[in-house]
Amino acid sequence: MGMEEKAPEYEYSKVPTKAMIAESPEKPPAYGYGVRHVQLLICLLSLTVNFIARGHLGVTVVAMTSPRDHALVLDTNTSTNYVENITISNVSINGVPSMDSTEDPFKRFDWPKSTQEMVLGAFFLGYCIMTFPMGIVAQRWGGKIPLQIALFFNGVISLLTPWLTNWGGWKAVCACRIIQGLSQAGVYPSIQTLLAKWVPVSERASLTSYVYTGSIVGTVLSFQLSGFLSESKWGWPSAFWVVGLICLISFALLTVFGSASPAVHKTISDEEKNFILGRIDDGKVRRLKTPWKAILRSKPLWGTLATHVGSGTSFVFFFTQVPSYIHYILGVDVRSSGLLSSLPYIVSFFTNITFGTLSDFMTNRNIISVRNARRIFNSISQVGVAISLICAAFTTSTVVGVLCLVCSMGCHMAMHVGWMVNHIDLAPNFSGTLMSIGNTLMNILNVLLPVLVSYVVTDMKNQIQWRIMFFTVAALTLTTNALFLVLMSADTQPWNDVDECDTSLEDAEIKQKKETKENQ
């Protein structure tokens, strides 16, 4: 009784709020190789095959429209034209092939440069029309479906193109390319959506750069395949047939083994799923509403979109015009044109992987901030392209010209850890939508680009005319990169989370600005 009872001790703590949980989430342990790497390999394959289907015509069209292997001699005595020692089977008159020979029904066409530009640009017309709608499809139903659409339609159309061309000439080719462009409009938004779902933050730059090597590998293979097959005994139609079969095989692999996200994958472990998400998964699949008003008001996004347009335009310029530039200015035949124009992409394959690995290495070890990493690598990309374009415009040497193109494309690959991964930085939940917005703006210029080239480069062997185009593209690239440096951010935007965006968007924006200043 003399001893006082000691009151029990209780530990009092604040009830965790949503904000507290967001600030200190439970981070799962690291996970090694697993299902995500298989899914990213499928993404790599899909991107590669789509670029083969997209890019092979840049070389194939040269084989389809090579100069006639005959001579027209003027008979001045009779004031009429007659043909001496010609091969009629290889002649097409007014774009319609001659059917006099039974050896090969697929003939070469007499298409002027302006017609060739229309054929090459038709793909981007279809691509531009459907980019934004397909981005919405990727956002709402996942990245797998648009990739399936692209591979299936490109496969079928590629198989049919030789017969349709024989029937309808360049108009039929344009129609086929428009359909292929329509179906491929969702490729990049889909890839971006899948990357946001499958790549953990700590591996974002490196794994993203690995997947996007598909554009490089696809370009190289498209040049090599089209050059080899066009010169083979099966002629240029075989390039379309082989590409069609590859597309359909890839479609089957994606359909059977691909998955839109870790949440719907049937065999992925909980440990790997949690590592990818960066938190313990609660098992809920969220379908978020797109905050369009907040997206359009975002200054960092507009900085990213600006360099997206400049970078994409310069890439398409190389993609569609390099084979012609090498062929006419550097004097290389069709087979060598495919080989030499592939060299820049072979080098860029290795620089792409190097940039991604280096970026993750420096940011994960806090050597530089993520924001500065995006700035540095994006500047390497855009400034390197501009300088290389300017240098290439003043040479007639094959060695020097190819070296400039190699440097240009090698530097260009830094964009994958610059503006391209920045879409995921800003809003991983809407990265596919952001990519579709940028691609829509970019493809407006890409549709106009062949028209501009046809007006500026009226003489394919006039280097001064090519020089004007090179300078124009270089100026666009430098200007848009400057806008990116000024406006960009690497922080996840408040509107990425719809719940917070609906209630306290302004407060979240103020808090984010303070955190950004502290990090700098």
Account of the protein in words:
The chain has helices spanning 18-23, 35-55, 57-64, 113-141, 144-184, 187-198, 204-211, 213-230, 237-257, 270-277, 292-296, 299-329, 334-340, 343-364, 370-392, 398-412, 419-426, 431-456, 463-487, 498-519; strands at 71-75, 80-84, 92-93, 96-97. Helices cover 68% and strands 3% of the residues. The protein has a single domain (33-65, 112-280, 298-489), classed as Growth Hormone, Chain: A (Up-down Bundle). The longest helix is centred in the first third of the chain and has 41 residues, at 144-184. A two-stranded antiparallel ribbon has the order 1-2. Strands 3-4 form a two-stranded antiparallel sheet. The protein starts with 17 loop residues before the first helix and ends with a helix. The radius of gyration is 27 Å and the shape is globular. The protein is built from 20 helices and 4 strands. With 520 residues, it is mainly alpha-helical. The model is unreliable at 1-25, 68-105 and 500-508 (pLDDT under 50).
List the main descriptive attributes of the protein structure presented here.
two-stranded antiparallel ribbon, mainly alpha, 68% helix, disordered N terminus, globular, 520 residues, Growth Hormone, Chain: A, 4 strands, 20 helices, 3% strand
